[in-house]
Amino acid sequence: MAAYFNFNGNTNDTSGNGLHAQIYGNSENVSSTADRFSNADSAYTFGAKNNDIDPVIWGSGMDLAGNSLTITFWIKGVFSSGLDDYGGIGVGTTIPGTPNAGGSTGQTLHIYSNSDRIRFSFFYDDLDAAQTLPIGQWAQLSFIFRHDTMARSIYLNANLIASQIAA
After folding, report:
1. What domain range includes position 51?
2. Residue 37 CA: distances (Å) to CA of 41, 42, 85, 128, 148
């Protein structure tokens, strides 16, 4: 199942599959802005966290268990030196900032970049790339997971920067 978010003023899935996303966390510090081509309301700017929850775009309704996936997006890193500053997305049944009753459900994925790393966290098994985003420039991030081999990879501007076999 595919989803496509072109952020034309909202977080709706425009693929026709109805897998809409929402903004969680400190949503009052999230605003729509211009994308890398200067198209108005086609990207999001994330502000500070609130109650220890960073704002994040979060999708639900996608069953990740037993599936391969590719997620690609453009991001412009504007980070302070604080490790809590990040830009990212998540998919799953556990909403960010809420307790995961009963432990891992095997249904969550979150990917992000901060001033320290780029992370691919899937089923509570993290792959970190030591490389960071170029600050103040648009960059393409791609995250790939192949269920048949359990291989996962992180690409920055089409260059492989981290890979491993997931546990």
Report:
1. 21-165
2. 11, 9, 24, 29, 37
Edge-to-edge order in the sheet of strand 86-92: 21-24, 56-59, 86-92, 108-114, 118-122, 125-129
This prediction has a pTM of 0.80
Q: What is the pLDDT of residues 42-82, one digit of tens each?
A: 888 876 665 555 666 777 666 677 788 888 888 887 765 55
Contact present, 88 and 120 (Cβ < 8 Å):
no
Give the CATH number, domain containing residue 25: 2.60.120
Do residues 53 and 96 make contact, with C-beta atoms less than 8 angstroms apart? yes
Residue 7: inside a domain, yes or no? no
Our count of domains for the chain comes to: 1
Q: What is the pLDDT of residues 82-107, one digit of tens each?
A: 545 556 666 655 555 554 444 444 45
- Percent of the chain whose predicted confidence (pLDDT) is above 90: 20
| Angstrom distance (rounded) from CA 111 to CA 103 | 20
The single-letter code of the amino acid at 119 is R
CA atoms in the 13 A half-sphere facing the CB of 140: 9
